[in-house]
Design brief:
This protein is of the alpha+beta class and 258 residues long. The protein has two domains: 2-68, no CATH class; 72-257, Muramoyl-pentapeptide Carboxypeptidase, domain 2 (2-Layer Sandwich). The protein has eight helices and eleven strands. It has helices at residues 2-25, 28-42, 46-68, 87-90, 98-111, 175-178, 202-213, 225-230, and strands spanning 72-73, 81-83, 95-96, 115-117, 141-144, 148-149, 155-156, 199-200, 218-222, 239-240, 253-257. The strands form four sheets. It has a four-stranded mixed beta sheet with strand order 5-11-9-10, with helices on one face. A three-stranded antiparallel beta sheet has the order 7-6-8. Strands 1-3 form a two-stranded antiparallel sheet. Strand 9 (218-222), helix 8 (225-230) and strand 10 (239-240) form a beta-alpha-beta unit. Bound molecules: zinc ion. Residues 133, 136, 141, 143, 254 line the site of zinc ion (ZN).
């Protein structure tokens, strides 16, 4: 009786873990399922099998399969287009359609500095949201970091937040927060550590936005209205306010293409 109960608890734990991995990485749940099968058949330990199978999927198997379905991964290691940290490529959150990838690579040439990406999309299926971003579900969206100055006012490649999110430029409540949209400020809990000495580099952030706007593929860019003003981009109709139902966009740029 007791062992039956324990098997039931184990089954529930496996199911919950599969759901967790699917939400976080899309394909991680399948990798765990495969890990269970391999470990059972070969009598190997799951903790040894899982990282190996995961890396094989992440580095070797999924990129060519995703390509068949119209998604390409943004680079892990590239001189000028880099993830904020290893989390984004390791969790399959760096996939976009080929047009967006090409456009980002071309934009680099116009700005002459590194572009840092955050969450993009998953490798498969239109409509599968990359939480917590509901709209990152079709390969056409990616979040990018602003550019910053260090404490001496010199341009730096550093970013204030470890995750890339949650370091707001203006340390004040936004109208949406005051209107009771509790989620608007939520990214402040997702920074995972911050370097508060960095300041927004208006010149290079503007150059980055200009480079993105120079591409005909760009459909819209979300940043907070006060930043649009500060960066002297009032006339750019494609830079929009994302609305109060979303989160603040004075910690990153949201880019979507047609
Ligand atoms: Zn976004």
């Amino acid at each position: 009786m007791r062992s039956k109960f324990m098997s039931f608890i184990k089954l529930i734990a496996h199911i919950l873990f599969i759901i967790f991995l699917t939400v976080l990485t899309q394909v991680g749940g399948i990798i765990w399922l495969l890990t269970i099968i391999i470990s059972k058949n070969k009598d190997w330990k799951k903790r040894h099998v899982f990282p190996i199978v995961y890396l094989i999927f992440n580095l070797l198997l999924i990129p060519p399969i995703a390509k068949q379905f119209g998604r390409e991964r943004l680079p892990w290691f590239h001189n000028d287009l880099v993830p904020r940290n290893w989390f984004y490529p390791l969790t399959f959150r760096n996939y976009v359609n080929p047009e967006l990838k090409q456009m980002l690579i071309e934009s680099i040439k116009n700005c002459e500095f590194k572009i840092t990406y955050l969450d993009a999309c998953f490798p498969f299926y239109n409509g599968f949201p990359l939480l917590p971003h509901l709209s990152h579900n079709d390969g056409k969206k990616v979040d990018l970091s602003f550019m910053y100055l260090n404490k001496d006012g010199k341009p730096t490649e550093q970013k204030p937040s470890n995750s890339g999110y949650g370091a707001f430029i203006k340390d004040a409540n936004m109208p949406c927060t005051d209107n009771g949209h509790w989620q608007y400020d939520f990214p402040k809990y997702l920074s995972f550590g911050m370097n508060t000495e960095l300041q927004l580099d208006k010149k290079r952030t503007r150059a980055l936005l200009k480079a993105l706007l120079s591409k005909s593929e760009t459909q819209s860019i979300f940043i907070e209205p006060y930043l649009k003003r500060d960066l002297k981009l009032q006339n750019e109709y494609r830079i929009r306010f994302q609305g109060c139902h979303s989160v603040r966009h004075d910690d990153h740029i949201h880019l979507q293409i047609k």
